[in-house]
Amino acid sequence: MPIQRRKFIAAVGGGALASIAGCSGTDGGGQSEGGSSAGVTGETLTLTTTTSTYDTGLLDAIHSDFEEMYGVTVDAVAQGTGAALESARNGDSDVVMVHARGLEDEFMQNGYGINRRDLMFNDFVIVGPENDPAGIQGMESATEALTTIAESEAAFVSRGDNSGTHTKELNLWEAAGTDPGGEWYQEIGGGMGEALNNANQQGAYTLSDRGTFISQRSEIDLTILVQGPIEGGPEILSNPYGVMAVNPGVHDNANYDLAMAYIGWITSPGAQDAISNYEMNGEQLFFPEAVSEDPNFQQYVPEGWSSDSSEE
Amino acid sequence: MPLEQVVQLFPALADLPFREGYIRSIIYVSLYVSVTAVTLSTLFSLPVAMLMGFTDFPGKGLVKSVINTGMGFPSVVVGLLVLFAVSNQGPLGPLELIFTKEAMIMSQFVLATPPITAISLAAISGVSENVRDAARVLGGTRLDVALVVIKEARYGIATAILAGFGRAISEVGSVLIVGGNITGSDGISKTRTLTTAIQLEARQGRYDTAMVLGAVLLALVLTVNAIVVRLGDEGAMR
Of the candidates A253, A249, A256, A252, which has an alpha carbon nearest to the alpha carbon of residue A40? Predict the structure, then answer.
């Protein structure tokens, strides 16, 4: 192990309690103890998020600005929407960035998340092999396309991982009035990239967010058969991302100050520009929607919530 | 500088779409976590194996089968158990170990301990009674006898440590869960290991870079094995 520096081996001796100090040492932060110093400098923000935001490389590209601005470190953990919210529910993260409004609303209603903001959007697309065995190419309706796939029993790969994309897919099947099942319908229990690979290997259809599909298009032979709203497809395929802080009233260890600084930064005009400028293979992956002349008040509360009709 | 030699061994490394320092940092995290876990585990397992090898007690057979079963314990399950322990809601929550190397060390400790204990125990039990008796007759204290037995069983113990190391550095399930596979925006790994990096590359369909990382992992394990075997031989000469 000559690669390693002695310092680190010495640091091992520091034992478990030195854990946080040890980590910042690795990051080269040079902060001895974040502790009680004023401000947030030297602290670490834990963000649990989805594989679709992480795997596109967006977060790595924009986070360095935030880290420099505040002198902090962002630990981004890519988990899928369900797991990202579960980590936050357990108090293991400070801020979440996900894309399943129903699950976000439930999270807020249960008191775990506060100060939600609409962040950005892209859309979902139905992709499949170029020869399109079920013949769904160019269909205007996503539900009709799914019904057609089900009727022809063409192979369909489902994420099956309680992610935002999986949730969207289940909602689509429900809207289509079809209960998918049988040998043609395969739940793989994996991330978007895995689902695309799997579908690619066996010439199957799948539902993908546009960002991950674009970022992987060069590796696979699948093609977009039903477009989302960005390219004039049905509105039902829209894919909005939200960001919210973990409620410090529920989890007092949550780094609420820094979470709010993050939400403030990522919904600011500067970071929103950075999001819209992020491209892969020459295509824009995400469309910012936090900055608006007329704010949508529904973004702060569970959908359909209104102050006079609620008993909460 | 040995890293440059490694890079020469794998020319493809130079073309990988990674930032400066990325590979080095994940190799560092992999080694730091696994070496620490295996060291701690050895310090724990050896005395246990000695104790079990030297004494008889009721239920010894049962304890042995529990340890042997532990060798096949799925790493994701260990990851989940450690997650429950270190999560903010868990008993160790206040230490804030979730998504840190220390949590990864804990889960690899749990994974490495059964093989190290079981194989050391087999090696120690294999040392002939005569050797122990001779050591005792020559006026050795319990410690002396133990040292003689360890010396006799050193190859078996080295195998045990390597088996534990092999299990620790190659597992992906638990470090993914408790470590979170985190790399900073500066491209320096915090809790990403070679295995979780391979998983990430494979998830994104970049099988070629995943293969190169796999080769690096293999080279690393080979190197560590060579070092341990070498140390064992040198120890024998003393």
Answer: A256
pTM for this structure? 0.81
A26/B190 CB distance under 8 A: yes
- CATH fit for domain B2-237, picks 1.10.3720.10, 1.10.10.10, 3.40.1400.10, 3.30.70.1400: 1.10.3720.10
Q: List, in order of start, the domains of chain A with CATH numbers.
A: 16-122+239-300 (3.40.190.10), 123-238 (3.40.190.10)
Let me know: does A46 contact B99? Beta carbons within 8 Å. yes
The pair of structure tokens assigned to A228 is: 């989302």
β partners of residue A158: A187
How far apart CA A214 and CA A193 sit, in angstroms, is 11
- A78-110 pLDDT, tens digit each: 988 889 999 999 999 999 999 999 999 999 999
Among residues B96, B98, B119, B101, the alpha carbon closest in space to that of B45 is found at B119
* Spatial CB neighbours of A107, under 8 Å, sequence gap ≥ 6: A85, A88, A89, A96, A113, A244
In the numeric block, the tokens 């093609």 are attached to: A223
Q: How many CA atoms lie within 13 A of B39 on its CB side?
A: 11
Length of chain B: 238
Compute the radius of gyration of chain A from its Cα atoms.
Answer: 21
The secondary structure of B148-190 as a DSSP string is HHHHHTHHHHHHHHHHHHHHHHH--HHHHHHH---B-TTS-BS
Complex ipTM: 0.76
Q: Which residues of A touch B183 (CB under 8 A)?
A: 60
- The domain segmentation of chain B, as residue ranges, is 2-237
3-state DSSP helix/strand/coil % of chain B, to nearest 5: 75, 0, 25
Element (H, E) at A46: strand A44-49
Q: Do A19 and B102 touch (CB under 8 A)?
A: yes
pLDDT one-digit tens code per residue, B9-45: 555 555 666 777 888 899 999 999 999 999 999 999 9
Dmax over CA atoms of chain A, in Å, equals: 67
Residue A20: its chain B contacts at CB < 8 A?
Answer: 96, 100
Give the position of tokens 């670490």: A44
Cβ under 8 Å to A: B residues 16-35: 24-25, 27-29, 31-32, 35
Tokens linked to A115? 């100060």
- The torsion of the CA quartet A286, A291, A292, A297, rounded to 10 degrees, works out to 100
In eight-state DSSP terms, residue B191 is S
b/e per residue A92-125 (b: at least 16 CB within 10 A): bbbbbbbbbbebbbebbeeebbbbbbbbbbbbbb
By the CB < 8 Å criterion, does B180 face chain A?
Answer: yes
Q: Could you give the count of Cα atoms lying within 13 Å of B84 in the half-sphere of its Cβ?
A: 5
Please give the Cα distance from B184 to A247 (Å, whole number).
25
